[in-house]
Amino acid sequence: MKRWWTRARILGLLFFLSTVLVVTVNEREIGIARDETVYMGAGSNYAKWWRELATLDHGVSAKNIERTWGGAPGGGNNTEHPPLIKTAMGMSHWLFHSKLGMLDELTAFRLPGALLAGLLVVLVYALTLRVWGFTEAMLAGLCMLLMPRVLFHAGLGCFDAPIMTLWFAAVYTYYQCLDGRKWPWQAGVVFGLALATKHNAFLLPFAFGLHYAVVGFRAGKWRGIVLHRWRVIVSLAVLGPVTLIAVWPWLWHSPIEHVTQWLKFHTTHVHYNFEYLGHNWNAPRFPWHVALVTTLFTVPIGTLAAALTGAGVWIARWRMKTAADPERAPALLLGLSAAASMVPFFFGTTPIFGAEKHWMPALPTLCIAAGVGGVWAARLAAGYIAQFQQVGERIAKRASIAIVCGSIVLAAATESVAAQPYALTWYNSLAGGAPGGADLGMNRQFWGVSARGVLAFLATQPPGRVYSHDASPAWGWYMRLGLLPKTFPDAGHEGGGIAGSQYALVVHEKHFNRHDYMIWKSYGTVQPIFVLRSAGVPIVSVYKRPPPPPAPTP
Questions:
Q1: In this structure, what are the phi and psi dihedrals at residue 132, rounded to the nearest 5 degrees?
Q2: In sequence order, what DSSP letters do the residues of 118-149 get, joined into one string?
Q3: How far apart are CA 61 and CA 380, in angstroms?
């Protein structure tokens, strides 16, 4: 038994290291999102503040905190987002770039996201191993690692992949703490860290509350709903907010006022543009099915099929009263976790501007279901093989698992490789790949990330000012990193930037079509000199201002 657990832990470590390596290598080809530039700046300031506090270089007065952490949401200190990931990014940059010189600036800022991606895969593996078994855990972990859009988001210095990890970490620790331990402090602390990552975490209590009510009622009828594992609820209600406040100095003074400002920013969030099924959406009501259809189009087909099978297995086992760990109902918990993440987007009023990144916390549930479903299908096939082909049961079982689970993993790996580094343009085979996604009118890009793909071409051209469009916030970073000569400065915004430019970029999003028209009018040509494509789908066009016509001869 001890030897088996040692093997399981070694495999968990290999999962972690492999994921961190894959994400870190992959992110080197991914452009800089415009939001990253804000988070990197704020994170550096946060990290510096904590270092100076540790060396007693300053105090914790309201005035001192306000300089680094305060201001209205939407300002330079980025108070609209909690600080945990930004602080980790700043500390990583200070340690691995400034102090040790081990990583370049961008990779150092993005390293915490890669580490958290590794942690997520380990947690998916660990929960599946504990509840459903080793083979299911291996498949679930690999499905989580080989998720094309997740791999992309994990390489950015943003919060969407980290909140998926902290969300699932909160689910995992909540489940663990239902074992009756006397001091379930882990549940509250991890929930607080999720709150300190992104506001999505405020949806978790809906999943926890309903799950707790069900397992409590099963354990002790109505009395059990209150008293079954009451310490877990106290931990979530007390240690969650305390942890959030502890890591966010802005809340140390006037916490109620500042929390209100933070949440109001998101409950009244501006509706950015996004393309979905051929339409540009920028105001409610949005289609109720956005989250479902986008998920169907952005998860590898093999993983989807296995997950649907796994969900069916969970339901069947529940009906037959053979579900795993019925006292803590892990399958129900995972289903409620996914629902809490996605349901707000069914209402048609929740802002949607980043597609799948908003409901990515649902994906660990999908991957665990895929692990369960894939192995169930393999074992079912093994029974038929052993029956009709007259081969040994053990051989049939191993062969079936290798073929079925191997096919799921290979399909996911193939799609993950094909998707990078422009994974926002990639869609699965159900949508028809990247070309099919474009034909269906699905969003191709956002945040200006794909502009990095044209830098090498620009560097071959004569120097000139560039209208860099949606990539403008990251333009200076590309020069700092040596990806673009400094002889191609940003020309500015909108009409003035186009008028003063020699080159112009347009990222292909439906609501950016007007930039093409503005450039055609200013440049006097409709012909780009370079078009960046992914699987044949145009994602960035580069225009060059033609030279002025020669002066007429007298």
A1: -115, -20
A2: HHHHHHHHHHHHHHT-HHHHHHHHHHHHT-HH
A3: 65
> CA separation (Å) from 479 to 19, 31, 474?
29, 13, 9
pLDDT, one tens digit per residue, over 196-234 is: 999 999 999 999 999 999 999 999 888 888 888 999 999
Locus of tokens 């393999």: 378
- CA 362 to CA 335: how far, in whole Å? 9
Order of strands, sheet of 466-467, starting from the edge strand that comes earlier in the sequence? 466-467, 503-507, 537-544, 530-534
Could you tell me if 195 and 82 are in contact, meaning their C-beta atoms sit under 8 angstroms apart?
Answer: yes
Q: Collapsing DSSP states into helix, strand and coil, what is residue 427?
A: coil
Tell me if the bond preceding 285 is cis, omega within 30° of 0: yes
Decide: helix, strand or coil at residue 288.
coil
Instruction: Give pTM, 2 decimals.
Output: 0.95
pLDDT digits (tens, 9 = 90+) for 496-527: 999 999 999 999 999 899 999 999 999 999 99
Percent of the chain's residues with pLDDT above 70? 98
What is the number of other CB atoms lying within 10 angstroms of the CB of residue 253?
Answer: 16
What are the backbone dihedrals phi and psi of residue 102, each rounded to the nearest 5 degrees, phi first?
-80, -30
Measured distance CA(224)–CA(39) in Å, rounded: 44
Percent of the chain topping pLDDT 90: 82
CA distance 68 to 250: 9
**Nearest CA-CA partner of 300 in 410, 141, 179, 188:** 410
Q: Enumerate residues 6+ apart whose C-beta is below 8 A from 57.
A: none
CB 49 within 8 A of CB 68: yes
DSSP 515-552: HHHHHHHHHS----SEEEEETTEEEEEEEEPPPPPPPP
| 96: DSSP letter | I
The tokens of 489 are what? 């400065």
- Helices 105-131 and 34-54 cross at an angle (nearest 10°) of 90
Residues 34 and 184: their CA atoms lie apart, in Å, by: 40
